[in-house]
Structure formats: structure tokens, C-alpha cells
Amino acid sequence: MIRNENTASDHPLSPPILIAHRGASGMRPEHTLAAYDLAIDQGADFIEPDLVPTRDDVLVARHENEIGGTTDVADHPQFAGRRTTKLIDGRSVTGWFTEDFTLAELKTLRARERLPDLRPDSAAHDGRYAVPTLAEIIALALRRSADTGRTIGIYPETKHPSYFAAIGNPVDALLVHQLHAAGWTGPDAPVFIQSFEVGNLRRLSRITNIRLIQLVDAAGGPADETWPSYAAMLTPDGLRDIAGYAYGIGPAKAQLWTGDTPSGLVRDAHAAGLRVHPWTYRRENAFLPARYRHGSQAGASGDLLAELRAALLLGIDGFFTDHPDIGAQALCRKDP
To answer: Over the chain, what HEC string results?
Structure first.
């Protein structure tokens, strides 16, 4: 039995939204137009692209700028010499990086499932889909909004903004330019911009009125070292500071709980006027708390629906999920 001691936060500040994390990425290779399109079919309100730049400053959707694990780049001998090691936010990473490829070169690659052992059905689609640009994702959202008669938004994340600014590939202005060109300029636009860093969100708050989301994690701190830790950011004073530039926070889902008891984070964020959009809800046992797992196989499907319903009882204002179909069930938009 989940104990709900967070009664001050039983009601969201806004009707909860369904955010397709990298698309329907539990069923198609993530960050592909096919994954986003399927997510919309399954009821997503927002589709989420993680954005990184190419060498010619085009924003594309990849989980990271290192693309060895999400594309077939290793199978292209003409790019073998591009494999290198870089220091990304203090971590040494070896592979192939989007900033070393032009868009035309990236378009010769095909996406691969990042977790093939857990998601063999998705891996069956390897090699079918190209790396999409932000422009293509915006066009998809606009077209499907017209097709479905409901507004489909986008929820882009700026990946490693300090790193890219330091190497001469700043992304904030590129992103805002494209969003504004699509007619998305204010807080009523179907857009949220998210980041784990603070400095770029503060900069964004000065050049756009689009809603901003401060991402936080259970450990560590922002790569731009604006705060000593994410934990410090989630104190009452820290939350009030975030509310000065952001519309909400995106915590790791585990941060909503202390064991089986609500942690109070939703209540505290709401008290500061911040919406709460936790990440990332997935159906595989490997990603579920023990109480929601079925069997012992890491890739087997557990009870994601129950986990989402428990989170919604805390008053969250939306959630990221790899499985928008189950998310729609949790929001009572379709039958289980």
C-alpha cells in the first residue's frame, strides 16, 4: 500500500500532460520521426527531442552528441577516422560526435535501438529511420496537430549547452529562432524548453517568453556549476530561485518518494509556484521499483500503469514516458 502523506499536493497546478520521452521510444528507436509519430497516435500531448548541433549548426535529435550507440555510424568506413575521445561535462567519452558531421553526412546514417537487449521489438526497426532535424520535428507536430484536431507540442532539451558554447556551437539562439519562426513565442505556445544546466535557462529567459523547465537529478549538480548540487536547488530557497526564471522542474521520478512515502517535493515545488514533470516512466522491470515488477527478467513488462497512477495521486503536472499508450491509460484517456 502506498501511503499518501502529501495531501497539500494532491491536486496539480495544471491538468497533467503526457510527454513522449524521445517519442514512443519503448517501441521504436528513440528520436526518430517514426517514434514521434507513433507517440502522437498513442495520445501524447508533447513529443520530446534532445537537441545537439551538427558541424554546420543544424539542430538534430539525439540522446547525446555521441552517436555510436544510437546510429549505424560504426558501419560506415568513410567515417572511421572521425572516432575520437572528448571531455564532455567533465567525463571522457569515446565515439563519434554530431558536431564533427555535417547534416548531409548525418543523413546518410540510420538510427538504432539504444537498449536492444531490453527492447528487441524496437531493435527490429534498426536501419529504417534517419536522424531528424528540429525543423522536421516541428513540421511533424504542426502537421499532426492539423490532422488530429488537437494541439501537439514539443518539449526540447538543450544537451550540454556549456560544452557546445565553449567549442563555438552555441545552441540557445538557434533553438529560439526556430521556435519563434514557427509562431511559438510566448507562454501560451505548446512548447517547453528544458535543461539540466541553469545558466542557459537564465539566458533563454531573457530572449524568449516560452516556458522553461529546470531539470534536476537525485545526485550530482548542474554541469555549469551554478549550484553545488541539485539537492541544494530543491530546498525552499532553491525552488524560489528556480521560480524566478522557470515554469517548472523536471525531477527524476525517484525523487518523488522516500521509500513508499511521498518525499514532499511535489508539495514544495507547488508552494513555490512550480509545475512538476518527473522523468522517466518505463514499463520494463529494469526501470521499475521492486513493488511494480513482474517476474525477474529485466526486459519483462511490469506494472507501469500502477506506478503512474501513484505518481498522479501526488499531484504531478505531467510526466515523461517511453510508453505513451500506458500513459494515456493512466490519465483515463483510453481503456487498459
So the answer is: CCCCCCHHHCCCCCCCEEEEECCCCCCCCCCCHHHHHHHHHCCCCEEECEEEECCCCCEEECCCCECCCCECHHHCHHHHHHCEEEEECCEEEEECEHHHCCHHHHCCCCECCCCCCCCHHHHCCCCCCCCCEHHHHHHHHHHHHHHHCCCCEECCEECCHHHHHHCCCCCHHHHHHHHHHCCCCCCCCCEEEEECCCHHHHHHHHHCCCEEEEECCCCCCCCCCCCCCHHHHCCHHHHHHHCCCCCEEECEHHHHEECCEECCHHHHHHHCCCEECCECECCEHHHCCHHHCCCCCCCCECCHHHHHHHHHHCCCCEEEECCHHHHHHHCCCCCC
Whole-model pTM? 0.95
Residue indicated by cell numbers 532553491 = 238
Closest CA to 50 of 38, 41, 36, 61: 61
Structural domains in the chain, sorted by start: 7-65+115-330 (3.20.20.190)
Q: Are 175 and 134 in contact (CB under 8 A)?
A: yes
Task: List pLDDT tens digits, range 49-72.
Answer: 999 999 999 999 999 999 999 999
Nearest to 33, CA basis, from 49, 57, 53, 54: 49
CA distance 204 to 246: 10
Condensed to tens digits (0 to 9), the pLDDT of residues 71-127 reads 999 999 999 999 999 999 999 999 999 999 999 999 999 999 999 999 999 999 999
